Amino acid sequence: MKSHHLVALLAFFSSTVSSEEWNVLQHLGANGQWFPGPDIYNLHGPAPPSNCIVEQAAYIVRHGSRYPDPGAYSQWLSLHNKTSSASRSFTGPLSFLNTWEPVLTYPADDIAQVSVTGYQELTTLGATLRLRYPRLYAPNTKFTVWANKYQRVIDSARLFAHGYAGPNASAVVEVKVVDADKPSALANSLAPSNLCQLYVDDSSAETDVWDNVYLPPILKRLRRYDPASVLTTDDLSLFPYLCGFETQITGTRSPFCAVFTKQEIEKYEYRQDLRYWYGNGPESGLAGTMMLPVLKAVTELLEDGPGVSYNGTKGTEFTPNPLVVAFTHDGQINQLASVVGVFDGHPTLPAGKMLDGRWYVSSRITPMRGTVALERMVCGKERYVRILLNDAVYTVPSCKSGPGGSCPLERYVKLVDKRIEAAGSFSKRCNATEGEESGKSFFVDADAEWVSVVKP
Ligand SMILES: *[C@@H]1O[C@H](CO)[C@@H](O)[C@H](O)[C@H]1NC(C)=O
Ligand SMILES: *[C@@H]1O[C@H](CO)[C@@H](O)[C@H](O)[C@H]1NC(C)=O
Ligand SMILES: *[C@@H]1O[C@H](CO)[C@@H](O)[C@H](O)[C@H]1NC(C)=O
Ligand SMILES: *[C@@H]1O[C@H](CO)[C@@H](O)[C@H](O)[C@H]1NC(C)=O
Asked: What is the residue range of the signal peptide feature (predicted)?
């Protein structure tokens, strides 16, 4: 081989390797900033297969990167109190704790709000979807985006609107705010669990087991860098969380990212998988069924196709855009990902040891701005549903015969209907007495009284 060929080849390999380098920020469960999921099925999304066109799509999105909630922030403060009142004798990888200060400069303004990295993720998502689906929106026409009624979620929708519709967003986009707590909404919202009195998100039985397996060896390894024995396993369990939050809040990699080894971070990541799998995921019983009404509403839209007009309960007509975008929270994104079919037949996650080869990985499902997308594709004369989690195509094991791993539309609709039938009615599952279940979905009912409109 000629030497310049070899040089070119080596350059190729080194750039390939560095672009796929293991990145701690992509293994933090729900606590990391957004990244595109790996193409685990080698299906080359998000571009559609060459003979297909996406004529309609629904993106259900978690709010963008954010500042900590009050509870998490008080944990940071107690850790700081501890490390600053210790003799400040940390060494090695823990030396930074001798001078560490929590990174919130304006806690009163920032707590619980979308962060600046969040602004970036959301406007980028807006621009990305406009570029991805150029035929689904004409400039300066009306566009609707939905948000669960919660400040950072509404703000996420508003930021998205600017990236999507551009400088005239505040004139042409309306953000429909869905109040999931209004009794009349019942399950007809972006957070149905709010009105399910039997809903419990509790994975502690499993996470406690794993915490006792994976954390003590890390504490033991780090003990020599903490001669005053200040840190506990509880403190250490916050380190990857702080890695994710501090990095996106400051825009600079946090020193907490360098404490755990790659193997230790992977164990932390598994801990996040257990938290979601048993909390409100595939093996959480009732909790995992909470987003079925939203899945039903989305599949109804895809079944009807783009451009259909609907009369509201009081007669107001509404025509959803072919691109439907709605914002909510991590729990809801995980609940939805767990019922769309892509984790059907997934082996159970053992609490005492990591399950290798699993494809249920919370980092790839609900990072900040995590997204479940369902597309209606037309390929020749046939119509298909294709599912993407954070831009990576996932397949439904029992229905993936379509182009690019998609499922024929009618079969997908049947699959969803069967799932809903098996789960039983939401009211019965939740022992709810108020609200009615059979109404039109908030996506099409312009008269739903638990929906209000704000400008982006
Ligand atoms: C800070 O630490 C001291 C002990 O070092 C403790 O007495 C105090 O309650 C702590 N304060 C907070 C807010 O955690
Ligand atoms: C924004 O709206 C104004 C008034 O309708 C229009 O003249 C202008 O071209 C629009 N800007 C863009 C970028 O579409
Ligand atoms: C919607 O309402 C209008 C009159 O208000 C009626 O003409 C039309 O048929 C209705 N469409 C549907 C789909 O019900
Ligand atoms: C369901 O609700 C009824 C009254 O609203 C109550 O008596 C009953 O205990 C509830 N069942 C469960 C399982 O919570």
From this structure: 1-19
